[in-house]
Amino acid sequence: MTIGPTLIQNSHKIGERLCASDLITPHQLETALYEQRLYEMMRLGEILTLHGWVQQQTADFFGDQWPYPDTQAEPVPIGSYFRRAGLIDRNMVDAILAAQKKTGLRFGALAVLNGYIRQATLDFFVEQFYPEHIGEPPYMIIDPDSLTDVSVNPFIQFDPNEEMPSASEANQANESPPTSDNGVHWLD
After folding, report:
1. How many helices (H) does the chain have, and how many strands (E)?
2. Whole-structure pTM over 0.70, yes or no?
3. CA-closest candidate to residue 95, choices 76, 106, 111, 78
4. What is the Cα–Cα distance from 147 to 156, expressed in whole angstroms?
5. Helices 44-51, 26-38: crossing angle, 10 deg rounding
6. Whole-angstrom Cα distance, residue 98 to residue 82?
7. Could you tell me which of 68, 169, 48, 147 has the C-alpha nearest to residue 101?
8. Closest CA to 29 of 40, 38, 20, 42
9. 27, 18, 20: which is closest to 59 by C-alpha?
10. Which domain of life is it from (predicted)?
11. How many whole angstroms separate alpha carbon 93 and alpha carbon 152?
12. Distances (CA, A) of 185 to 50, 113, 170, 175
């Protein structure tokens, strides 16, 4: 059996995507394509998986399940693509979302900072699915007033020129003992 031109063309496309996303090296692709010519019944993704270079889920995503952006009605969050490609799992998504609330950084930037994916992989996904966002900064535009916790709000800044109250001023401010919501004094 001879490999038809469509299978070879598809293999090259899959391989090019995997190389462009920095998930395999050009040498790995060249090796897998050579082996595909020797083992005509095997698909490129199967060969890459057998070598341990990608997971089967990743090979399937970049091959048969490739989501062409122009065929999608609704925008898909980048994290969904990473999960469908087997690049991150649910625990990683949860960790990224928790960090995102605290830092205001974009999902992809946090995935890179946490070491879940490479910067080149993020860049590839942005180019493929969100070309309008190429070159945007890694942080999200957020309303600073929506963040009230000083430890989380990067917009609340320390004023080094502001004088600290003296010990006597601090004691005067705290002359009345603290009370609970129902008016009970804590120190009685």
Report:
1. 9, 0
2. no
3. 111
4. 9
5. 120
6. 17
7. 147
8. 20
9. 18
10. Bacteria
11. 20
12. 70, 48, 19, 12
